From TrEMBL, chains A, B:
Listed name of the protein: Proline--tRNA ligase
Reaction(s) catalysed (UniProt annotation): tRNA(Pro) + L-proline + ATP = L-prolyl-tRNA(Pro) + AMP + diphosphate
HAMAP family in alphabetical order: Pro_tRNA_synth_type1
Record family assignment: Belongs to the class-II aminoacyl-tRNA synthetase family. ProS type 1 subfamily.
Primary location class: cytoplasm
Annotated ranges, domain Aminoacyl-transfer RNA synthetases class-II family profile: 33-465
Length: 572, 572
């Protein structure tokens, strides 16, 4: 492609309303343009990266035995009423009426439609397993669309749905998708983790999120430095091994701690590490119970673990009035001794002894606290957020590293939720009717490209890995008016095209400074600069965008050298 | 792909609500499934044909210098208000509101969005010409969606928009697209005509429709048997060469024609060919004028030619009351003699003499009519529909053949309609601001596949040409339980996959009769049957779906033979 005949409108300035770097760079590099909030044009350059991502996905899905189809964007209300989601789904489900006043929605996901396909076409266990996928444009009417393609309203997604006769089959389908996803993100050249995710309100027995690692990521995750275990901190288990309780050595004492409210303040005042304190959190649950949770002073509560333990929808900090009622003191002085609430402690508290707790009175703390001597704890459980350095609960050898990640894919065992409500059954080998066991598997296509940019950029622009870069090679023709420069550039361009290389030729009549700035911004991985000075020595310059490495190569060697690099990248 | 792991739900029965053959066959061959009126799932087999069509389009568009992008389905009302189409577009434009009550529509076409892209990114004539295209899902809320993919509501379309500095440039862009479209439909292996189309109310100086020829086509077209001229009969010119008028030989006579109303009846009654009659049509125009049109008795009026001549939006047969007023008689007896209306005659009437016309009275006709002796004709013009056998108005050598066609593509010179209303301008080489001259170019992707089926099928099923067939080769494994048959089939399958051939292996445990019926229905062009009997002689059977040709080939020769056939087809 010739730059002069292409539409690649780069921007010098950072657009005002773009908050995150991928959004800024995709706008500046002419990859996307906004049409409305959360709705974008994929400009030619951006579409190329999108299509490459799609093709990697397609190849790996096919290799895993999934079958491609395409379902419509406009979904009739009937199917969503049947599943019950017409009512339950919030305003993200954009509902509309056609000219005959029939109700439709824009498909934000396609469980209903795909379940309808399968119940109408699959009758026997012999047609299973079946995994149908599509790469399709979806619409979710986000209340606050932002971050460009990261959280758009209209977006391209790969969604797949597996159908099996039983749980064992569904688990195999799940594992295939898990492996396909690993292959996909590996082939994209991205650093990522497959993390165990909390499956939240949707239910289902297991679920992994695929996270592209990037400092700007919304999600906090931990991964083991020695095995494959990785999890969202909301889900990550904390290893606790049975240990003998430490015998009490200190006496219980109520001490004055004037104007010391936070853990840090109290610890400093008493000249103790925060780990010697135990904090008492007073919480309310969706079941209208009040519970007190004990946690080592330097730890954070994982409210999802607590909610799961209590089998409630949510837990929240108790209101001031409730705290006063339970503790007899204002917020900030809660302690477990003499407290009028169920007492649940994190496992870590089990073996603690001689610790500090709140005194249930203003400016008072107990020191030298021991259980069960001074208080009775009703229940111990894994309640804290995992942290960097925690031992791995899976291999028990490694330790947690912590990362920020951007969720780009999700694999999910759905079970029979949809097949039961929508009566999607098959006959098994005994002639018995059985509900299909489903799984669902999504990848945000544009989101992955955006996440790849979050992970791979510098202050000058994109540094996309070769498999996702819109072009593999950029040939910069310095001074197109120089006949020799023009000829050499055109020759290289023609040879690269001939070799099947994706190449952009910057044949614009622009100053070198502008060409180099645009080159860095757009960040095509391999850049060849053809200039009069180099040609005098019979050389052109090769610059590797990711490493910054630069070298002069003889004219005759440049095309083979590029082809070799590209072939080598394909193999890894 | 293995049939046993694929989703290919064929149907024995013709679905009740499918009127046209392509719709019936696409349902029966498991290519599509209905979700709602005019909204379909593309099932795996159907999607393969769609994707092949898309890829042919993409390659030819790229070759012609067009640049691919992707615009959104949800279009903000503002852009459509700016062009004026928010108000003007009928109910086919599906309008909806988002959760914040902002107005949107589902894009039925993308002139507004693409013009917005270009006015924001193109500043100088040096960035021109530019042709942006997309392959995208569109929505038009048809009042009567029907015929499957032929007239759906949600459908896949390739739309392209060219931008040039001036008319001369726009004409070159148009020609490039015209040629690209010829290449596309040729590569699809379809019989088609590029016909000059009436550009209707949209304006624009030229326009061609690409018609796939099929008996079931909605459009009547004529094409020259000797040159490339082809046109919709609504548009086709009728050649008229100046000839000397025939001198009157007969006297004017008013005769009784009791109960003879139609041209056929009167001609038979008078024992004359219909070509000796001249019919008088009384018409009303959108400008509220009443005109009378004279046409040879065996010809049809082309109302579009008449409307263009009169420069009105439409002409319609006059209501009974008007006819009575103008002719003094009921409908069916109108004649030009003594008529109170403007008289316009088709060119063909110029040299007629001694003809028959209505008598403006019940059961009366004039015979021996001559002009200008008996009546004064205000104007002569080309007003009749072209017919088979008419001489070609372009080359003047050939004669018209007539066809039925299905419109699958349209190229259209738009001019400055959108660039002027939306202020899409560039600076020319003099620094002057100029409105961009646009063209637009559409291909219905699913519609083309459906039209290909209308053109290529028999009573047993599809006969799609190789470039559009979902698979190139079908290997039918007769009796999978026979170890030798299974082994030979698997070997052929593996070798074909290795050779890059698109192959479906029918490895189902089904009776041969079912497998052959499905094979004919799905109509994969090259079919290999592997059976125990053939294997005894070391042969398998090759059947060509289109020709029906069958032959036994030695096992060792089958894969090379297939590869050769496919390669040969690729070259044509």
């Amino acid at each position: 492609m010739r730059y002069s005949q292409y539409l690649l409108p780069t921007l010098k300035e950072v657009p005002a309303d773009a908050e995150v770097i991928s959004h800024q760079l995709m706008l500046r590099a002419g990859m996307i343009r906004k049409v409305a909030a959360g709705i974008y044009n994929y400009m030619p350059l951006g579409l190329r990266s999108i299509r490459k991502m799609e093709q990697i996905i397609r190849e790996e899905m096919n290799r895993a035995g999934a079958v491609e189809c395409l379902m419509p964007m406009a979904n009739p209300a009937e199917l969503w009423q049947e599943s019950g989601r017409w009512e339950k789904y919030g305003k993200e489900l954009l509902r509309f009426k056609d000219r005959k006043d029939a109700d439709f929605c824009m498909g934000p996901t396609h469980e209903e439609v795909v379940t309808d396909i399968v119940r109408n076409t699959v009758r026997s266990y012999r047609q299973l397993p079946l995994n149908l996928y599509q790469i399709q444009t979806k619409f979710r009417d986000e209340i606050r669309p932002r971050f460009g393609l990261m959280r758009g309203r209209e977006f391209i997604m790969k969604d797949a749905y597996s159908f099996d006769l039983d749980d064992a089959g569904a688990d195999i389908s799940y594992q295939k998708m898990y492996q396909a996803y690993r292959n996909i993100f590996q082939r994209c050249g991205l650093r990522f983790r497959a993390v165990e995710a909390d499956s939240g309100a949707i239910g289902g027995s297991f679920s992994h999120e695929f996270m592209v690692l990037a400092e700007s990521g919304e999600d906090a995750i931990v991964s083991c430095d020695s095995c494959e275990y990785a999890a969202n901190v909301e889900k990550a288990e904390v290893l606790w091994t049975e240990q003998e309780a430490v015998a009490p050595e200190q006496e219980l004492q109520l001490v004055e701690t004037p104007q010391q409210k936070t853990i840090q303040e109290v610890a400093a005042f008493l000249d103790l590490p925060a780990a010697r304190l135990v904090k008492t959190l007073i919480l309310q649950t969706s079941a209208e119970e009040v519970v007190a949770v004990l946690l080592r002073g330097d730890r954070e509560l994982n409210t999802i673990k607590l909610a799961n333990l209590l089998d409630v929808d949510w837990v929240l900090p108790a209101e001031e009035e409730v705290v006063r009622h339970v503790t007899g003191a204002p917020i900030g002085f809660a302690g477990p001794i003499g407290l009028d609430a169920r007492l649940i402690a994190d496992n870590e508290v089990r073996t603690m002894s001689g610790y500090v707790v709140g005194g249930n009175a203003v400016d008072r703390h107990y020191v030298g606290v021991c259980h069960p001597r001074d208080l009775v704890i009703d229940q111990f459980a894994d309640l804290r957020r995992a942290e960097q350095g925690d031992p791995c609960p899976r291999c028990k050898n490694g330790r947690f590293e912590s990362w920020r990640g951007i969720e780009v894919g999700h694999v999910f065992k759905l079970g029979t939720k949809y097949s039961e409500t929508m009566a999607a059954t098959v006959l098994d080998d005994q002639g018995q009717s059985r509900s299909l066991v489903m799984g669902c598997y999504g990848i945000g296509v544009g989101r992955t490209v955006a996440a790849a940019i979050e992970q791979n950029h510098d202050e000058h622009g994109l540094k996309l890995p070769l498999p996702l870069a819109p072009f593999q090679v950029l040939v910069v023709m310095l001074n197109p008016k120089d006949a020799q420069v023009r000829q050499a550039s055109e020759d290289i361009y023609a040879q690269l095209l001939e070799a099947g290389v994706e190449v952009l030729l910057d044949d614009r009549d622009e100053r070198p400074g502008i060409k180099f700035k645009d080159a860095d911004l757009v960040g095509i991985p391999l850049r060849i600069t053809v200039g009069a000075r180099g040609l005098q020595d019979g050389t052109v310059e090769l610059k590797i965008r990711t490493s910054g490495e630069q070298s002069a190569l003889p004219l005759a060697e440049i095309v083979p050298a590029l082809c070799q690099r590209i072939a080598a990248a394909d193999e890894t």
